[in-house]
Amino acid sequence: MRRLATHLLVALSLLVLGANVAAAAVYRFSNPTNLGPTINSNETDIHAWVSDDGLRFYFASKRPDGSDLDIYEASLSGGFGTPSLMEDPFSSSDEDFRPFESSDGLNLYYNNRGAAGGPFFVATRSDKSIPWDHPGVTIDSTVFSALTFPSGYATGSVNDISADGSYLVLQGNKGSKHDLFVSPWNGTSGKWDPAQMIDVDGVFGGSGRNIHPSLSSDELAIFFVSNRPGAPGNWDIFALTRPDASTAWTDTGSLSVSLVQGINTSSNDLGPFLRNGVMYFQSDRSGGQGGQDLYRAYVPEPATFVLWALLGLAGLVCYTRRRRQ
Predict the structure, then answer these.
(1) Closest listed residue to residue 92, CA positions, set 115, 125, 108
(2) Measuring CA to CA, which residue among 63, 44, 36, 34 is closest to residue 291?
């Protein structure tokens, strides 16, 4: 009986260790590669985003065929196709940036700080086969009319949407201070509710600027950029994680944060976005073509409780066999 209790204690210890490691998940990437001249230009290329079906690639660029910072689209069928400038309103005289689709591909969200009714817009089509410049595509900003930020936050940007469309992830700007927010969808009003702060500073235990949030595919992580001291560069990529999808992003005590491994350099690394095991981001590191280039790196999912449970059971078996010898 004492031997059985000892065995169980060892197994339990290993399982608890596994749970703690999973809670503080660390994302590790392969060596990043530049997306090359098909996508990158001699200008600034930023804010990469890939559709859920993996067929469409969006980004923003300041290349000469546009008017300022404009949105481009490229096919991903069989590799990167040649990017094309999306027509107005995605290439207006103001800055158009941070495009992202809903999971069904019927809505394209983007930001424009100068256009009337902005800064948040959504384009809607009835079928994915309809191009975004089709006359039947509608452009709306009224669904964001209730999306306000706390006092002192003058502006912000919409950055990503959950797979079920129940909430947006945003960045709010308060002078030189930037923070992360979520905005729930209100089915009764048919509008996005006021932004709720994600207290990243509370998780870190210190103040900093937090920008460029995006969701992982399983929605257990928000990748974002911060200028925290002690990291390799001025701006570096971090992962904010929660233990399960039922934990609110506003539940500060249940969240963990870690520096993403394998990507960050002494340069500025920004705009992270993970899709199908591939992390896209922008950087002004040496060896690029323009002011900022787009890169990608491959990443395994972080260790989970199940994996560590299996390791714990394997350890128990080995321990038992040694005791019997």
Answers:
(1) 115
(2) 44
Q: Give the domain range for residue 77.
A: 26-302
86 and 183 belong to one structural domain: yes
Pair (319, 190) in one structural domain: no
The count of domains in the chain is 2
The verdict on 2 and 52 lying in the same domain is no
Residues 95 and 185 in one domain: yes
3-state helix, strand, coil in the chain (%, to 5): 15, 35, 50
Dihedral angle, C-alpha 222, 228, 232, 233, nearest 10 °: 90
* Same domain, yes or no: 297 and 255: yes
Q: Of 20, 15, 46, 16, nearest to 258 (Cα)?
A: 20
Q: Same structural domain for residues 119 and 203?
A: yes
Instruction: Give pLDDT tens digits for 51-102.
Output: 999 999 999 999 999 888 999 999 999 899 999 999 999 999 999 999 999 9
Two tokens at 169? Answer: 């992830």
pLDDT tens, residue by residue, 109-126: 999 988 888 899 999 999
In degrees and rounded to multiples of 5, residue 124 shows phi and psi of -130, 135
CB 180 within 8 A of CB 222: yes
Residue in the structure block whose two tokens are 């001699």: 42
Question: How far is residue 32 from each of residues 100, 280, 291, measured CA to CA in Å?
Answer: 22, 9, 17
CA 94 to each of CA 172, 293, 306: distance values in angstroms, whole numbers, following the listed order: 19, 21, 49
If you compute the radius of gyration of the chain from its CA atoms, what whole number of angstroms results? 22
The tens digit of pLDDT for each residue in 154-174 reads 889 999 999 999 999 999 999
Output the pTM of the full model: 0.85
